[in-house]
User: What shape does this take?
Amino acid sequence: MKKWVLVLIMAMLFVAAAGCSVGGGSNSGDKPIELIWIMGDPGKVPVDQAMVEEKLNEISVPAINVKVKTLYYTDEKTKLALSSGEAYDMVFTSEWFNNFAVQAQAGYFADITDKVKTLTPALYETMPEVVWEGAKVNGKIYAIPVKKDYAAELFWRFDKALFVDELKMEIKDTMDFFEIEPYLKAAKDAWKAGNPAAADAEYPLKLKKTGLPGIDSAFDMINRDALLGIPYSAIGTPDENKIVITYEHPDLTDRLYALHKWYNAGYINKDAATIEDFGKYSAVKNGQGFYGADAVWSGGDGFTQVISKYSGPYLSTASIRGAMNAISASSKNIDAALKLQELINTNQEYRDILRYGVPGVHWNKNEKGLAVKTQQGRDNYGPWPFAQGSYSLSTVEAAEGVDVDPNMWNVIFEGYKDLKATKSIGFAFDITNVSAQVAAVKVVADKYTSGLTTGTLDPATTLPKMMEELEAAGIRDIQKEAQRQYDEYIAGK
Assistant: This one.
């Protein structure tokens, strides 16, 4: 594993950031191939999507005779599209959206193991072997990882105007998960006192029904639907290869108890377990990110944020699979789709347009070479930038009030020298033998996880009841089968 990590770091540091063109331009007499790409729903379908696609086609048609049509689907709609046989060529997938391993094992994604090396060698060379290894299911490559923050890091995000400028509170570069409590109290007290800077901080930690993002970040998740993972805290101990049920392990349950305490204190909104969204502002937010993500979050949310890391960096199969794009096994244009993915991941001009929109309309570059969105860009074009292709290839985004480092990706990859990893890189749990139990467990989990991960439900009374129902649904059988497969995987390494 240490050897792999070193390979990962070296490759990231030395792969050129500047884009290169994909060869094989089109024959002027050929009609361009239109590829349908299902992307994750950013909450609002970009108003200027057609304008951006037209600009993208000006690059892709001459280069590879391909143009793209993007559809923005929710997780549920994406899964339905695949299961119903809807026509598409490419689709966003990950551990948390359009469940990658499950969908790959179901046969929806094309096997590109050989073609990614022979047809698109420039694409394959953008990432080290360990990343491709983590993308494999049963030894085969079924999707292209997005080159980004492979090693997961979780951050608390603070409203700078409130906490730093007004309350004069120090925000350290790193802190523990539980160290957020004094900040929540300070924001709530400022709201009670009528401080104008805290006018929107009645509930300093606003949550929606999906719960606190990254609540299970202390685990290398083996199967999220079955609530199974390996605690990073077990690395180097006799239990480092033991798969646990996360909802009965203190690395998660301690966080659930803290959330409930904060909920009772009035720091979390009372409707957290039922609402779909709370808007962009919360005095305290959190999320998976990286050095420099404060600029991305500040720009996206419309207020300046200061960040503090509380988890990671952890390298895992799940973090490698945090954002990927697969090609439909039923597509008639698998080769063309793979060539487009190569273009996206190696041509910086194309990647920048895909992320930010049309230059001069949706964004511009400032004197530091950073991307600055226009008002039209903020209003009319906002896809998930982490989902489209190499995040580290695209121009770094500027943010008002944040000193953005244009070379931030070099710093990020350098920081991965301190990462931790379990031995599970490349392991994929095949649920075939316990698929009925997994489905039953998910039904039970869906009853409780929203209430627990928003702090609404009391873990002291809820967790025992939940575990009793999970056991009746067969979670121990799933755990046993996962452990059996994992033991065989470790023995064969």
